[in-house]
Amino acid sequence: MAVTGLNQTAGRPFGVDQMRNLALGEQVEALLCQMTLEEKIGQMNQVAGSRDTTGAPANTDIEEDVRTGRVGSVFNAFGAEFTRELQRDAVEHSRLGIPLLFGYDIIHGFRTIFPIPLGQAASWHLEGIERAARIMAKEGAAAGVHWTFAPMVDIARDPRWGRVMEGAGEDTHLTSLIARAQVRGIQGNEPGATDTLAACVKHYAAYGAVEAGREYNTVDMSEWRLRSIYLPPFLAALEEGCASVMTAFNTLNALPATCHPLLLDQILRREWGFEGMVVTDYTAIMELGQHGVAADASEASRKSVNAGVDMDMQSGYFIETLKTLVQNGQVEETRIDEAVRRILWLKAALGLFEDPYRYTSDEREAQCLLTGENRRAAREQAAQSMVLLKNEGNVLPLSDQHQKIALIGPLGNTPRLLGSWRGNGDHDDTVTLREGLANRLGEDAVILCAQGVSNQIGEDDTSGIEEALDLVRQADAVVLALGEDEDYADEAASRADIGLPGAQLELARRVLEAAGDTPVATVLFNGRPLTLTELDDLAPALLEAWWPGTEAGNAVADVLFGDVPPSGKLPMSFPVSVGQVPIYYNAFNTGRPKGVDPKYASQYLDIPNAPLYPFGFGLSYTTFEYGAIETACSEIGPDDTLEVSLTVTNTGERDGIEVVQLYLQDVHASVVRPLRELKDFRRIQLAPGAGERVVFHITPDMRSFLNAELERVQEPGLFRAQIGSCSESGEEIEFTVT
Ligand code: GLC
């Protein structure tokens, strides 16, 4: 494996060169040499600091523990005043006054909530993703937070797993680029600026590969797959200067990730050269007991700290056992010092030693949250995240002439569109779809609302459908708002049946039947790919809106009425059936690919192999024509870069945004290679009739892969390049590398 050091993070806020910043190092050493063993261990202990309904700390021991130096970091505490109080307990009452590090899950917004990360990934708009991360960091930092547990970069090929909503989908290249954009947005360009946060890439590693899509379940894969598919986004985040790493709950190849020397020492430290801090996930050290690799707290602490964990989130095992482990020689004090250096270094880099209260400004908090500018950004990102899955008969965009809209479905008039991991988002701030349509159509419009059915799992009551049909018959257009409750795709929210919950399909069937020639637009609010095969048969127009966040209703209206063209492309395959899962576009051909034989081929008796909607798929309100691929030659040397290009033309009558995608196939190699792999893309905007020449450069790095010995190599031979609008279509050329 080629060793990729992190020294190319020059200039990155928390990159390796900053970590070797002498001034910060001197601050840390000056402090470290004064600390007792107990105080050092206290820095390695992170506890939850949320408030109860009265505003008091829910964790009643926290103030005493902070004052006695038993806590180095608090998570789930935010608010200038609350964090200032806790900080004062540390700075003014503990012996050395070491400031606390405040962490929080600011994943896709703090108070202004942006689309869920899977939705943002569908925008393929890296600048928009970075801007969203920038805004959420500004808001979180204004509320006293120093450190966010983001980006989440878990590759996911199984939509049964609820946390697919939190990542960027199935593709390693797209997830890696998005990870970089999120780290840039979160950390900004200046370490410790009070409108930035330290980032924490998670969950290290391969949490998205839980067996059967069942939360917290076993993960087991070849090291080839781990290093080729699941690890690159982590390296990308760290190369972008990400300050910290969070370990995953799951096992990887029979070892829990939280005590995994290959992950935490060999790869992270020796190969990648990462020098920042590693924090565990919530009680993950304690869970080594449940995993069956630790008989007690002492063994769990020993294994995790010696594997490379620096901070214990919430299990309390480090504070309870490390002192004895050091005294009896099972843990070297040098290991403790190494962990504490990383923690103190981060606090120093955030400027907390100069001014522990620098992030707690009531004024900044009052000014920065939920501003009009932030809402506008959230609305734009939400509109750009939406994916037009179907538009038969050009039902969409709706026309302003539609003045009597029947808004039918359980998600038409609800603020529960923020999604899970919604930070300090407030449903009261959310623009519902009903409000968004009213805002768009003006006060003369009539919007007739009926829920029809529930979207709760197991609630199959259809008695409300008749009322809904009455409204449909009165309307000149119908918007059908269906999907999942926002807590159905989340941590601890795996689903074995990934269809529309409740009786929503029955509602859709009856509404579409009753609508006759009245246009019906179906909008989906969900946190994972769903099985939509029956709905796809029924509905002429399908818009995937994910959970769009605070500006949901306005953003959906923007797209439904064509004010913003739909431009999203799926970051994750939508299966025909859950029986296809795991399903992903960059699969291998197998020795008996479908089609080679009517029976003896890699296929099912009862369902197709192909997904209903493939990775990279998304329609527009216009049409695009792809010209033939041009290239200067069809044979290149191993060090050459091949330029390929084609012209994309907007052949429709409306403005459109197209994500032009470049895929590559290494046709014969020493290991099997995917039929296609995303290597690059361009997001272009074209007016009707306009064309643009899109140029890609196929580099040696794009052609490289891990061989069976896990070495990064490029091999000579035949390659195919495809350029198209999704992973299943496009122009293709062949070329040879000598
Ligand atoms: C949770 C999640 C992790 C999160 C942490 C703190 O269990 O797995 O992503 O950052 O605990 O809330």
Automatic annotation (TrEMBL):
One of its GO terms (molecular function) is beta-glucosidase activity. Its EC number is 3.2.1.21. Keywords: Glycosidase, Hydrolase, Signal. It catalyses: Hydrolysis of terminal, non-reducing beta-D-glucosyl residues with release of beta-D-glucose. InterPro entries: Cellulose_Degrad_GH3, Fn3-like, GH, Glyco_hydro_3_AS, Glyco_hydro_3_C, Glyco_hydro_3_C_sf, Glyco_hydro_3_N, Glyco_hydro_3_N_sf. PROSITE patterns: GLYCOSYL_HYDROL_F3. GO terms for biological process: glucan catabolic process. PANTHER family: LYSOSOMAL BETA GLUCOSIDASE (PTHR30620:SF16), PERIPLASMIC BETA-GLUCOSIDASE-RELATED (PTHR30620). Belongs to the glycosyl hydrolase 3 family. This is beta-glucosidase. It comes from Kushneria avicenniae.
